[in-house]
Write a structure and sequence with these properties.
Length: 210
């Protein structure tokens, strides 16, 4: 079982892992006990920008979880994933003119690193008509012909369980892939989409908010 560590994630640990990232074995030893611990890396820890705009707050708990892929390069090590998250931040703020990264969380890497974006309390901008009632979780990369790491898949499921336990996500939530709720036919990619269809709370039907 993956245990998500949030508030007590050690910044010195991040630095130590970064310095030793050429040795994947060292990363596993420092960040996790035999790949059983996933780190939830806060905005402050990955040095997110401070938004100049007011972002609406959720009325929790929300009824939906929506899975995305970022459609960017994937990442393996902690430093690679941090770089990708900052690049996504630049694209979403500078090019798309959003107030922040559109997702609530991003996940990637061989060890299943979870990055806080808008987090549990701020409304995302990841799926029209469903932003105010869903948590958006994006896997870093393209997953049409490959899968995310097992650690990333497990960490995401544990993140969702954490959301239920802390009353951010309803106990009877519905799980969707972005492609079900939008015109995107390939997000998330087919390999990832086939996996999440086997997860608890998967919903085949489209839910109208009208």
């Amino acid at each position: 079982m993956v245990k998500v560590v949030e508030s007590n994630f050690n910044e010195e640990l991040i630095e130590q892992v970064t310095q030793n990232e050429n040795s994947h074995e060292n990363q596993e030893e420092r960040l996790s006990a035999k790949s059983t611990v996933a780190a939830l890396i806060t905005r402050r820890q990955w040095k997110a920008r401070k938004s100049d705009f007011r972002i609406d707050t959720f009325k929790a708990p929300v009824p939906y979880v929506v899975i995305h892929q970022t459609s960017t390069e994937s990442c393996n090590t902690l430093s690679e994933c941090e770089k990708q998250v900052r690049q996504i931040e630049d694209i979403h703020i500078n090019s798309k003119r959003l107030s922040d990264i559109s997702y609530n969380f991003l996940v990637g890497g061989d060890d299943g690193y979870i990055f806080e974006a808008r987090g549990w309390t701020k409304v995302g901008a990841h799926i029209n008509r469903y932003n105010s009632v869903s948590i958006g979780i994006a896997f870093i990369g393209l997953f049409e012909d490959k899968l995310p790491s097992n650690a990333s898949l497990s960490a995401t499921q544990e993140l969702i369980r954490m959301g239920m336990e802390e009353n951010y996500i309803k106990r009877d939530y519905k799980l969707f892939g972005m492609r079900q709720l939008s015109n995107s036919i390939d997000n998330p990619g087919q390999q990832l989409y086939d996996i999440i269809k086997k997860w608890p709370h998967w919903s085949y039907g489209l839910h109208s908010l009208d």
